[in-house]
């Protein structure tokens, strides 16, 4: 199934690996780490334009912009014990 097909499916598919949001941010994986929104986990995203990789709450995937070139919010840590270079979230 292509990323374009996944994007057109009903709600709930935005957390599936391969999903591409309207701003070109691609879901890489669910990290299993606790997110900052209630009941959310952190997902690793990658920008299809510049290749920047960062973390995001699952609830934010559909609206994310790249933090490096598209004025998006800073990414979240997406690996245990390793902070994303532009992380502003603290546990």
Q: How is this structure best summarized?
A:
The chain is mainly beta and 91 residues long. The chain has one helix at residues 3-8; strands at 25-34, 41-47, 53-57.
Share in helix: under 10%
Oligomer: single chain
The low-confidence runs, each spanning 5 or more residues with pLDDT under 50, are 87-91
Number of strands: 3
Mean pLDDT: 83
Rg over CA atoms, rounded to whole Å, is 12 Å
Note the run of SSEs as H and E.
Answer: HEEE
- Helix/sheet category: mainly beta
Beta-strand share of residues: 15-25%
How are the strands of the biggest sheet laid out side by side? 1-2-3
Plain-language structure description:
The chain has 91 residues and is mostly beta strands. It has a domain at 3-63. 7% of the residues lie in helices and 24% in strands. It contains one helix and three strands, in the order αβββ. It has one helix at 3-8, and strands at 25-34, 41-47, 53-57. The chain has a three-stranded antiparallel beta sheet, with no helix packed on it. A hairpin with a 5-residue loop joins strand 2 and strand 3. The radius of gyration is 12 Å and the shape is globular.
Topology:
Elements: H1 3-8, E1 25-34, E2 41-47, E3 53-57
Antiparallel strand pairs: 1-2, 2-3
Characteristics of this structure?
three-stranded antiparallel sheet, mainly beta, 24% strand, single chain, 91 residues
């Amino acid at each position: 199934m292509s990323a374009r097909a996944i994007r057109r499916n009903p709600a709930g598919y935005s957390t599936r690996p391969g999903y591409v949001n309207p701003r070109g941010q691609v879901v890489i994986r669910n990290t299993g780490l606790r997110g900052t929104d209630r009941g959310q986990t952190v997902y690793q995203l990658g920008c299809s334009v510049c290749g920047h990789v960062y973390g995001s709450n699952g609830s934010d995937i559909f609206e994310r912009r790249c933090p490096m070139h598209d004025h998006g919010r800073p990414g979240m840590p997406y690996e245990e014990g390793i902070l994303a270079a532009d992380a502003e979230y603290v546990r």
